[in-house]
Amino acid sequence: MNNQLVDSQGRSFPYLRLSLTDVCNFSCSYCLPEGYQCDSPKNYLSIDEIRRLVTAFAELGTWKIRLTGGEPSVRKDFVDIIKSLRSVDGIKQIAMTTNGYKLKEKIGQWVDAGLTNLNVSVDSLDPRLFADLTGHNRLPQILEGIDYALTLNNLRSVKLNAVLLKNINSHQIDQYSQLLKDKPISMRFIELMQTGDNLEYFNQYHVSANDLKNYLKAQGWSEKIKSPGAGPAVEFVHPEHKGSFGIIAPYSKDFCDSCNRLRISSTGDFHLCLFGEQGFSIRHLLKTDEQKTELKETLCRLLGKKRKQHFLHDGDTGITPHLASVGG
Ligand code: SAM
Ligand code: SF4
């Protein structure tokens, strides 16, 4: 049996994005504009199932886990989940992506539990626009939480995410630059992706990340050479800024060549790509520790089905209605 996750293109997968829930308390205009709709109660993966899953991935070479959702921090057992992952052999990084709700109150507990890396979504630095985009007038509190996070020694990185939106935040790059002057933050812009539910929105607000790259270059930012094994983000640095910009451009040529991540949904479906046609349920293999060998064999066999690239350019968004469903 393979003892590493390597696909038919020779790509390896040190990175697992694990969705803990599809519930979210925000209503971002590009993701859940009507807020979370509860059609029927779901049975999310338990701590024991998560530990078994991550142990199997770690034995197959995965060393970085990102907890995402929905909003991962709405899970009442969130701190215990982090603690249980910390004790899995081989896991070197436990990261999360959060909307930052209650960040200041909670980040200390999360880091004490073992969180090593933090990404916070901040789609605008203008409080009114932020409230319009997310449905929550909380930008000042979230920024305070980020400042506090920067003081925590055991937190290795603080990154901010923003979805690049035409004529909304695409004109606010200078505000972000200002923020990066003195703060060692990586500010990641993600090109808006089309999902099953957002076609009209996508057509109105999608802007190519190339425009942003050109703008940054004109302002004196320079592209960093990627280190081997780095993911798809392209980093930009500037001699007068402590922080950096990162651009994630899923529509760019060759984006999928550097794919290094796999995904598990909050109910235990294995997704080979955010925009794949199906998830494969592996939950029946998470019931006991004794199933580990079968689980590892199944993961390696399913990885054989991973396609070379997504088909977003053709408007094929796979089964993803919005990113909260699979875990963005
Ligand atoms: N709730 C958390 C948050 O917002 O940070 C974690 C889950 S969210 C789905 C993960 C990331 O996906 C966020 O940075 C969000 O902005 C991004 N995202 C959601 N929908 C997107 C879309 N259609 N295109 C690009 N990025 C998207
Ligand atoms: Fe919630 Fe994150 Fe989606 Fe916003 S992007 S609605 S915070 S899951």
Characterization of the model:
The chain is α/β, with parallel strands linked by helices. The protein has a single domain (15-325), classed as Alpha-Beta Barrel (TIM Barrel). The protein is built from 10 helices and 12 strands. The protein has a 12-stranded mixed sheet, with helices on one face. The longest helix is centred in the N-terminal third of the chain and has 13 residues, at 47-59. Bound molecules: S-adenosylmethionine and iron/sulfur cluster (SF4). Iron/sulfur cluster (SF4) binds at residues 24, 26-28, 31-32, 69-71, 99, 121, 324.
CATH superfamily: Aldolase class I
Helix and strand composition category: alpha/beta
Highest CATH level, the class: Alpha Beta
Q: Work out the count of structural domains.
A: 1
Mean pLDDT: 92
Which helices and strands occur, and which strands form pairs?
Layout: E1 15-19, H1 47-59, E2 64-68, H2 78-86, E3 93-98, H3 103-113, E4 117-121, H4 127-134, H5 139-150, E5 157-164, H6 173-182, E6 186-191, H7 199-205, H8 209-218, E7 222-223, E8 234-237, E9 244-248, E10 261-264, E11 269-271, E12 280-281, H9 292-303, H10 323-326
Parallel strand pairs: 1-2, 1-10, 2-3, 3-4, 4-5, 5-6, 6-9
Antiparallel strand pairs: 7-8, 8-9, 10-11, 11-12
Helix pairs in contact: 1-2, 1-9, 3-5
The structure holds S-adenosylmethionine and iron/sulfur cluster.
Residues 24, 30-31, 68-69, 71, 97-99, 121, 161, 163, 190, 192-193, 195, 198, 323-324, 328 line the site of S-adenosylmethionine (SAM).
